[in-house]
Structure formats: structure tokens, C-alpha cells
Amino acid sequence: MGNITGIDFAVLTSDKWVLCPNYIRGGVLMSSLTNRGWRVMHFFLIGLLLIGLGASQAWAEETAMKDGGIEAGKWVLGMRAGFAPLTQQLSPNTSTDVGSLVNFEALYSLNTWLLLGMMVEWERHSVSVERPSADLGHQDTVSVLPTVEIRPVRLGPIVPYVNMGFGVNVNSFGEASNVGTISPSNNFAWRLGWGADWIFTKQLAANVEMAYKINDGHATINNVRRDDWNASSFGFLFGLKMFF
After folding, report:
1. What is the DSSP string of the chain?
2. Which residues are within 8 A (CB) of 87 and not within 5 positions of it... i.e. 6 or more apart?
3. Cβ–Cβ < 8 Å for 205, 243
4. pLDDT at 54
5. For position 185, what pLDDT does the model report?
6. What pLDDT, in 10s, does the model give residues 175-199?
7. Which CATH number among 3.50.50.60, 2.40.160.20, 3.30.1490.190, 3.30.1360.40 corresponds to the domain 67-243?
8. What are phi and psi of 218, to 5 degrees?
9. Residue 2: CA count within 13 A, CB half-sphere
10. Domain residue ranges of the chain, discontinuous segments joined by +
11. Who's near 181: CB < 8 A, 6+ residues apart?
């Protein structure tokens, strides 16, 4: 009890008042750090907002529709391959397989939407008799087509277009064994195509195109002319285009 009553309450009180400024300084420091943290967070959030707005504007500008699908004075080289079914029977009582198709083109842009150039296309179709079943061989066609192409707009990286060519179909026939001579005629060619380029860089694009081509003529079979010989086809092409 004596020890308890001997405690100097004044000293305890004095120590408490000595510690209080430390507590106060600590509180002020924590408050200052908290305020700085909020200011940094505010600046960070504002920066993210500005970056987001800038990216959104850049994306909108990139994907916005623009008049004209190409720069004036550009060369376009296309290399595509695909397949082409005939749009009808080649000739009565014949069957024709879906043919292989290879296409090369070189075009020059006169302005931002009009191109002129040349297209060369090769296709091959296996031909057989339906009744009785017999293999006749295959027909090859090389089409040489002066071409005009129109590119009215650009939709971000995608450039749709339509093209048309007039020229000649050079036809030949590779006969199977034990088959007489088959000589298809060379014919007027008209081709209407439409497709799109997916622009990767200023020099390179992926391409897909569909086209209808007229190849209607006659064939001479063992020195006998046959007028109903129609190899008109619908082609599907996939490949690359380069811009210079």
C-alpha cells in the first residue's frame, strides 16, 4: 500500500504530456502521407482517363470510313490461289470437277479510287463422261484480262473493291489415254470480281476475292464441231497483295 501511495502522479502526468507531441506529430505525418497518396492516385486516374480518351480517339480515327481505298500513284501486285466450280455443265453428258485456280495481277492507281492494269488467271478442270462413266482428261484455261478496279472507301484496315476485265480465254485440252482429239476454242472473256483487302502494313495486305467469268464457246472432237461447250466458272481466291 505504501508503494502504491508513493507513486508520483505528477511525473506520470508529465510523461504523458511529453509523449503527446509525438503522437500529434505522428498523426500529422500520417495525414500528410494520406493526402499525398490521394493526390498521386488522382493524378494516376486522370492520366489513365486521358490515355483512354486518346486511345479511343485514335481507334475511332483508325476505324472511321474514309473516301478512297488507295493512294494515288501506287502499284499493286496480287498473287492469289483458290478453286473454281463451273456454273453449268461443260457439255451434255459430261461431269466436271471443281478446278484449281491461280491468279496474278498488276494494277496502277490513277487516283484514290480508280486503278487500271492487267490480270492473268489459270484454271484446270477434270472432265469425264457421265454415261457410261469414262475419263476424258482435263481442260486448261489461261485468261488474259485488261482490268479496271474501283476502291471507293476504306473501313479502317479493310478496303472493299470491285473489278472488271475484258480479254481472251486461251483453252486447251489434255486428253486421257484411249481418247480422241478434243480441241476447245479460244473465247471472249468477261470477268466481274469483288473482294476486300485487309491491310497489315503500307506494303502488304491479305486478300479474298470472288469472281464470275464467262468462257463460252465450242469444241472440236475428232474433227466434229460441238457448239455447246461452256466452261464459264465462279472463282474463289485467297492470297496476298503488295503495294509499291
Report:
1. -HHHHT--HHHHHHHHHHHHHHHHHHHHHHHHHHHHHHHHHHHHHHHHHHHHHHHHHHHHHHHSEEE-SS-TT-EEEEEEEEEE-BSS-SSTTEEEPPEEEEEEEEEEESSSSEEEEEEEEEEEEEEEETTTTEEEEEEEEEEEEEEEEE--EEETTEEEEEEEEEEEEEEEEEEPTT---EEEPPEEEEEEEEEEEEESSSSEEEEEEEEEEE-EEEEEETTEEEEEEE--EEEEEEEEEEE-
2. 212, 232, 233, 234
3. yes
4. 57
5. 97
6. 998 888 999 999 999 999 999 999 9
7. 2.40.160.20
8. -140, 170
9. 0
10. 1-63, 67-243
11. 175, 220, 221, 222, 223
Average pLDDT, the chain: 84
pLDDT digits (tens, 9 = 90+) for 4-22: 444 343 444 444 434 445 5
Q: Identify the CA nearest to 183 among candidates 214, 229, 151, 124.
A: 229
Instruction: Report in angstroms the alpha-carbon separations of 11 from 6, 139, 222.
Output: 12, 115, 131
* 8 Å CB contact between 184 and 173: yes
Q: Give the chain's residues under pLDDT 50.
A: 1-20, 23, 29, 33, 55-56, 58-60
Q: Give the pLDDT score at 4.
A: 42
Nearest to 87 by CA among 244, 239, 243, 235: 235
Cβ atoms of 195 and 232 within 8 Å: the answer is no
pLDDT digits (tens, 9 = 90+) for 52-69: 555 445 444 555 678 888
CA distance 240 to 244: 14
